[in-house]
Amino acid sequence: MIIICQRCMTRFHLDDDATDKSTFVARCTVCGHLFSAYKPNRVQEITFLDLEKARHDKTDDRVIAVSNRKGGVAKTTTCLNLGVSLTLLKKRVLLVDFDAQANLTLALGQKESPTFYDAQKEIGKGLDAFIVPTKYPNLRLLPSGRNMVLLNKKYFGAGNFEYMLKDRLNTVTEQFDFILIDTPPSIEYYTLNALTASNRVLIPCQCDYLSTHGVDQVLRLIRLIREKSNPHIQSRILFTMLDRNSQASRLILQKIQSFYQGKTFETVIEMDGVLKEAQILNMPAIQYSPKSTAGTQYLELAKEVVAFTESSMLPAP
Ligand SMILES: Nc1ncnc2c1ncn2[C@@H]1O[C@H](COP(=O)(O)OP(=O)(O)OP(=O)(O)O)[C@@H](O)[C@H]1O
Ligand SMILES: [Mg+2]
Known about the structure:
alpha/beta, Rossmann fold, 12 helices
């Protein structure tokens, strides 16, 4: 079996018989990190050998992961509001809820739908069969649900496991102009798959002191992913929940903007109660209140995201 250190991503080959426990604690001999490891299930519904092909397939500029190890920084809010805003720019969008919390699925009012886990169990069926329409034209969803936790339990650490999402998404990419992947505030199976499948990463960063550390951690992870599984990955930071009345909030924005110059979106999402009101009705801000601060800022962001993805089509200098 292969186990992977969640901090430095070094892979270790461990004899299958080294332990009979399904979960055990391991210490990385490279960086010293202590972490829980899972023994992958022997009965695998997919052949990991097939994933060898996905390893070499190109990742697509249209695929964007929304990721930050810090929780509550507006990853899910950004997926929903950016996704709907992109459809208003006449783009066909797929939202992938790749978080077992299933917040994005709930935010779209979707219940009890089949998930990516179900898709992996029925590998003979196209991914299309698991993608559902939403109440918004041109916006479709690959839902999450309770059984998504099993992906981590069963597959994390198995050979080529981080290519599972890329392998399946590659079969539907042509149907969409953008694919946005919502990720959980942890690394493990979900974030490693999402970052391996995406050419772009949008990193939401709340304008508070602790969030700046989350950005640092995710940028470090992206560098590792670039070296190990996805050489084309590029990232950009999005500032969220800015409180213009708070001097601390403005100061942090200024500091990070100058530190990460050229790697941040110009659009900044301000604190806006409309987002919480809209959430109660399972709506994005732009539909609930089109002229609201959040609604207009997410639409501006959508325009920037289009430019960000098209920038790679310029010839390299
Ligand atoms: N600009 C904003 N103004 C006010 N509230 C916001 C804003 N953005 C997000 N929120 C609220 O902050 C909370 C956390 O947002 P969200 O669930 O999108 O974060 P997350 O990063 O996806 O969290 P997790 O790490 O748990 O997945 C939600 O209640 C959301 O409505
Ligand atoms: Mg979330």
